[in-house]
TrEMBL record:
This is VOC family protein. One of its GO terms (molecular function) is metal ion binding. It comes from the Bacteria. NCBIfam families: PRK11478.1 (NF008551). InterPro entries: Fosfomycin_Res_Enzymes, Glyas_Bleomycin-R_OHBP_Dase, Glyas_Fos-R_dOase_dom, VOC_core, YwkD-like_dom. Pfam families: Glyoxalase. Keywords: Metal-binding.
Length: 128
């Protein structure tokens, strides 16, 4: 098997408009494509991060909630690489998102912090 990279990450949200606003207005991802799939009563929003990675944001009627805290089985979190964590935290704070205190990765010495999307999905900023 010759896997080159992660192609996309799919996220199911409970409130499409709130999540769309969060990922585009707060995090600044660009909309690549938006489709309403009438047969599924579902939106699919393709988002780009610096023209490289893609997030697929889905809405479905009444999706079940997944446990995410403290350490549920499954995807633990989604981490974003940032060049300056202090600037990124300040930008989030100005937009009303309060991340956890910045920590230091004991293995790499790099700084990181966590915050949540509108559905409580744990997101991480990791300083490159």
């Amino acid at each position: 098997m010759n896997i080159n990279k992660i192609h996309h990450i799919a996220i199911i949200c409970s409130n499409y408009e709130a999540s769309k606003s969060f990922y585009t207005n707060i995090l600044g991802f660009k909309v690549l494509n938006e489709v309403f799939r009438e047969e599924r009563n579902s939106y699919k929003l393709d988002l780009m991060i610096n023209e490289t990675y893609q997030i697929e944001l889905f809405s479905f009627p009444n999706p079940p909630m997944r446990p995410s805290q403290p350490e549920a089985v499954g995807l633990r979190h989604l981490a974003f690489d940032v060049p300056n964590i202090m600037e990124a935290v300040e930008e989030l704070t100005q937009k009303g998102i309060i991340p956890e205190p910045i920590r230091i990765d004991p293995h790499t010495g790099k700084r990181f912090t966590f915050f949540q999307d509108p559905d409580g999905l744990p997101l991480e900023l990791y300083e490159a």
